[in-house]
Amino acid sequence: MEFHVWLAFASASIALLLIPGPTVLLILSYAISQGRRVALATVAGVALGDLIAMSHQILRSWSCARAKWSNRDRPPGYSRHRNTTTPNGC
C-alpha cells in the first residue's frame, strides 16, 4: 500500500473515531437536561442492550455453524426437517 493511500485511510479513520455517535449524543443530552442520575441509567440501559444484541448474534452464529457442521456428511438437499437444510438465515 502506498503511503498517501495509507495516510488518507488513517486520517479518515481518526475522523470517524472522533465524531460522537448517536448513543453518545443521547447520553450527553440526558446528562445536560436531566442530570447525572438519568445519564447513568441511560448508560446502563445502552450497555445492557449492547450485551443482549452481541449475545444474540454470537448464539445465532454458533447455532448456524452447528447446523452446517451436523449436515456435512449428508447429500445435498437432504434434511431431517421439511424443506430446509439449515435454520433460516444461515
Can you tell me about this structure?
By secondary structure, the chain is mostly helical. It has a domain of 48 residues. 71% of the residues lie in helices and 0% in strands. The chain has 3 helices and no strands. Helix 2 packs antiparallel against helix 3. The mean pLDDT is 83.
Determine Rg (CA atoms, Å). 22 Å
Tell me about the biggest sheet? none
3D shape = flat
Structural class: mainly alpha
Beta-strand content: under 5%
Helical fraction? over 70%
- Number of helical regions: 3
**How many beta-strand runs?**
0
Q: What's the average pLDDT?
A: 83
* Span between termini: 35 Å
- Reading the helices and strands in chain order gives HHH
Q: Catalogue the unreliable spans.
A: none
Name some characteristics of this structure:
3 helices; 90 residues; mainly alpha
Topology:
Blueprint: H1 3-18, H2 22-34, H3 36-70
Helix pairs in contact: 2-3
